[in-house]
Amino acid sequence: MCIVVSAIGCGTITKGNRTPVEDVDELSSSEDESENESLESARNWCGVDVSVLTPAPPKFPFTGNPGIKVSLRQSDDPLDYFCLFFDDEVISCIAKETNSFAEEHFSNLELTPSTRALQWKDVTSEELKRFISLLILQGIVQKPTEKWFWSKRPILCTPFFGNVMNEKRYSLIMKFLHFQSSNDSEDESPSNNKLKKIGKFHSMLMQRFQSTYIPKQDISIDESLIGYKGRLGWKQYIPTKRSRFGVKLFQLCESESGYIWNSIIYTGKGTTFHEDYEDYGVSTKSVMTLIHELKNKGYTLTTDNYYTSPELAEILIKCKTDIYGTLRANRKGLPSLIKSSKVKKGEVLAFQKGKICLLKWTDKKPILMLSTLHSTSMVTVESKKSKSSKLKPAVVADYNNTMGGVDKADQCLSYYPVARNQQRKYYKKIFRYLLSQAVWNAFVIFKKNGGKMRQVEFRMKLIERLIEVTVCNPSTLRGPFPKSEENVVRLTGRHVPSYVDESESRKKSRKCVVCSLKINENGKRVRRESRFECKNCNVGLCVAPCFEIYHTESNL
């Protein structure tokens, strides 16, 4: 099962000259090295006799402080968790920029009297919360065209959307939705110009993601794609993703939960990375920028072959950070034998350079792995599908267990997509995707704080709470908001008093539900009959003042 490789040559670990990437769109950070470079790199690698079991290099001691970093009471209210990211400052900022953009729009254009835009009035924070609730709901109740959510056709109608906000108002808010003034860029670099409409909002959200929660030791970095088919100079093509075309993000997630801790929006050549890593290739720069605040704390990073390289491993070792992942054979600094040797199925070829272990193993096809914390040891892994066991290198088994952080987040977001394919403006598409990320992170924090809901139930409760708190001012209420599902329809629908329908099985009057909540001087509930009812809510009500109380106060 093993190939014994004699030492090719051992020497001190030296760092070769680094050649920056010329084009950020290329798939690898370097070209194949020349024969002389191969001979030079081979002198730094030692062949490993895999028939002899050697101990794995020790992990760097973990000194991080993972967990929730904000004061959070034991709560089952999804709104408490969502407001960790979409707090009053974020909502107010969006409302302010939206109103400013609308004002600028009217001042620069001459509009005809029949133009719908003239019906615009400034959006408030409360109205924006209802607007956001409908965006989240569109991910659960999915329709191919956005206007169909307000359709009155019996086979399509969903009256709840119209009860919360009419279609004209929703369309106007979407039309003027804005997140950053065009003159708000601190830096006039081409990169910032590309993100001048969404960069500020993205930074605000990432700051809240990072300050709310610190990830556990195992983290992973991978690409994510926001599907977009409109015109965009820095639109990317990733054939392995479902959408294939769109806006690419580099993301850092906690491996276990899929919590999204940091991300970089990739805008092609000129993407802003941390200034300390400007001399490296794109793959190395993206990793080091994402992990910058987690350096020197003993984190263990898992990456795929787009990022993994001997150069990156050496940099991370200096930062007391371990790394392992799949590797491309054309990376610089690899021994030529690792590329040219043909390894039979189940066999292993390995090299060592200091703390870095390079391993080639063949299963269905050759796999090249790099690790700073694994040896050539093998483990038995049971297949879930075939229920059979297979012998694999420990680094391969660990990679399969920890690499899925970003994929887990993307998969869970795909179940309830807030972003729509028909969104024309790229920055609104990015906003909807970031909104979905905020809901996902809120759900992860909810689960870590002892919550028991499923994700879809969490999202539905969040929608109800976003609407409830905007119906009336919470400061005027005597107690906490009720959590009943009927509240949303009761407080937002269009209600008209009507006479009680008389029938053989029904009286001319019904018990008023508001009066029945009152207590008389004898300590008993008041019973008062009324000839009026609300057919929409199916309850009896006095015309005044009970009808108004029932449909405006949420703490009944």
TrEMBL record:
Protein name (database record): PiggyBac transposable element-derived protein 4
Sequence segments annotated as region (Disordered): 20-40
Domain PiggyBac transposable element-derived protein 4 C-terminal zinc-finger: 505-551
Boundaries of every PiggyBac transposable element-derived protein domain copy: 77-443
Coiled coil regions, renumbered to chain: none
UniProt biased composition (Acidic residues): 22-38
Origin species: Araneus ventricosus
Pfam families: DDE_Tnp_1_7, zf-Tnp_2
